[in-house]
Specification:
Organism: Acidovorax temperans
InterPro entries: 2Fe-2S-bd, 2Fe-2S-bd_dom_sf, 2Fe-2S_ferredoxin-like_sf, 2Fe-2S_ferredoxin-type, 2Fe2S_fd_BS, Ald_Oxase/xanthine_DH-like, Beta-grasp_dom_sf, CO_DH_flav_C
Distance between the termini: 53 Å
Number of strands: 21
Keywords: FAD, Flavoprotein, Iron, Metal-binding, Oxidoreductase
Strand order of the largest sheet: 2-1-5-3-4
Structural class: alpha+beta
Number of helices: 17
Helix content: 25-40%
Largest sheet: 5 strands, mixed
Protein name: Xanthine dehydrogenase small subunit
GO molecular function: 2 iron, 2 sulfur cluster binding; FAD binding; iron ion binding; xanthine dehydrogenase activity
Length: about 500
């Protein structure tokens, strides 16, 4: 099998590469095939952010969507038809131009003689120390600049911390880098010529393509085509954002003979709203998903921010996280608590829906047939009396894997628990529903005595293992304590002081 030529825009010009293997990462293409060694390899698994680059693609409304992503775990073919920027491109891209202001007319500005504000701010604020992580930070700043400064938004300290959560600095240089994030808006502005770039992307999309039937990397444009390919090639490795598959390639050196990319199927990239439901396509990114869910459930804001770093959320998809089925994946406990349904589809049998917790049969095992794919997740909108809280316990506040994840969704009316839905992660071989605890709460008065009894049920309901993240005893204790915390917060007391103080601590505070 062969692959189509990989085509993308860089510095406003098309790049075409032939014979790129289906499992080659974008970082490998940049460093080894194109000689662009300014983008660094750090962890090789999407944790440190040294390899961060920015992708641009049409948003469907005549604008570009900019996404900072980890190139070390992003499959190269997944950026076909997109625009790409690395730290080496910002001062060299002819489509990034100075913007005229009241004090600086356009005809007096110059290009290629000045750094981009994301770079200049790092220089002025002394944001680079050893320099190894600097290209990744600069690219996250560039993404922040395009998505916030260019839209007239200010950058708060807290927002800068959130947008840089996927970048780690071993020299402990966070304070000046956060200074740089806020300094960007004070520098002479620059902007991407989006009209020109969108036109170039449209021309790139018109390039004749060979049939996909026996390609090594297949990315169908519709759900029907996707299911047909799945039926014909059930052995192909399914990928979405590749935030889990990518480390198989980069760290475990697995070879993927054939890849089926679901992220180009238009139906899987949609979020559809009805008065009763939100239907989320399996290929919608986690960034887009959490923006929509947080709009419906504002209490999820912190949980959404703590779901990996921003570059991972920009690449990873909700469907990929759910289908992967990791017992420590954070989206599944949330979706279980929201009583989500997953919709599976095959070419031969059509669609079927089932509760999300019924998808799993064992550790990373599920009920999907070889010709089936997960195509969307359907979530019911909340009743006015529902209270939703999602808790993530991990060793590090930002960009870390949960030791325990507990999400509680209680419908409390007239002082009684009318309905309880509880999802848990990190306590069993699969993401699970705490059915015994739900039964212990449902129909009971919402009192401290009820909560104390339910805590004992919750701690006895699971037998979590001990591993590098936490012991089984710790996990059981935390489960009960989180339920108690939910009770305290429901009484208006907020989180216990020790917890609130811990959560308020960021790296900047201790430097």
């Amino acid at each position: 099998m062969t692959t189509r030529p990989l085509q993308f825009l860089r510095r406003g010009q098309p790049v075409a590469l032939g014979n790129v293997p289906p499992d080659r990462t974008l970082l490998e293409v940049l460093r080894e095939d194109l000689g662009c060694t300014g983008t660094k390899e750090g962890c090789g698994e999407g944790d440190c952010g040294a390899c961060t680059v920015v992708l641009g693609e049409p948003d469907g409304h005549g604008k570009l969507r900019y996404s900072a992503v980890n190139s070390c775990i992003r499959l190269a073919h997944s950026i076909d038809g997109m625009a790409l920027w690395t730290a080496e491109d910002l001062a060299e891209d002819p489509l990034i131009q100075p913007v005229a202001t009241s004090t600086q007319p356009a005809d007096q500005t110059t290009h290629h003689s000045a750094l981009h504000p994301a770079q200049e701010a790092m220089v002025q604020c002394h944001g680079s120390q050893c320099g190894f992580c600097t290209p990744g930070f600069v690219m996250s700043l560039f993404g922040m600049y395009q998505n916030r400064v260019c839209k007239g938004q200010s950058i708060s300290r807290a927002q800068a911390q959130q947008d840089l959560s996927g970048n780690l600095c071993r020299c402990t240089g966070y304070r000046p880098i956060l200074d740089a994030a806020q300094q960007m808006a004070q520098l002479p502005p620059m902007a991407v010529n989006e009209a020109d770039l969108l036109q170039k992307l449209e021309l790139l999309a018109l390039t004749p393509q060979a049939p996909e039937a026996n390609l090594a990397y297949i990315a169908p444009a519709t759900q029907a085509e996707l299911l047909a390919v799945r039926a014909a090639h059930p052995q192909a490795q399914v990928v979405a954002g590749a935030t889990d598959v990518g480390p198989w390639v980069s760290k475990q050196h697995r070879q993927l003979a054939q890849v089926l990319d679901v992220t180009r199927a238009a139906e899987l990239r949609r979020i559809d709203d009805t008065p009763e439901h939100i239907a989320i396509g399996a290929a919608v990114t986690l960034t887009e998903v959490f923006a929509r869910l947080t709009a419906q459930w504002p209490s999820l804001a912190e949980f959404a921010h703590r779901f990996a770093g921003l570059p991972v959320r920009n690449s990873g998809t909700l469907g990929g996280n759910v289908a992967n089925g990791s017992p420590i994946g954070d989206s599944m406990p949330l979706l279980i608590a929201l009583r989500a349904q997953v919709v599976l589809a095959s070419q031969a049998r059509g669609e079927r829906a089932l509760p999300l917790e019924a998808l799993y049969t064992g550790y990373r095992q599920n009920v999907m047939a070889p010709d089936e794919l997960l195509v969307r997740i359907v979530v019911s909108k909340p009743a006015s009396s529902e209270q939703l809280k999602a808790y993530k316990i991990s060793k590090r506040f930002d960009d870390d894997i949960s030791a325990v994840c507990l999400v509680l969704n209680l419908d409390i009316a007239d002082g009684t628990v009318q309905r309880a839905s509880i999802g848990a992660g990190g306590v069993a071989a699969t993401p699970v529903r705490a059915q015994q605890t739900e039964a212990a709460l449902q129909g009971q008065p919402w009192t401290e005595a009820t909560v104390q009894q339910a805590m004992r049920v919750l701690q006895a309901e699971f037998s979590p293992i001990s591993d590098m993240r936490a012991s089984g005893d710790y996990r059981r204790t935390v489960l009960g304590n989180l339920l108690q915390r939910f009770w305290l917060e429901s009484q208006g007391g907020g989180a216990p002081a020790s917890i609130a103080q811990l959560q308020a601590t960021h790296l900047e505070d201790v430097l």
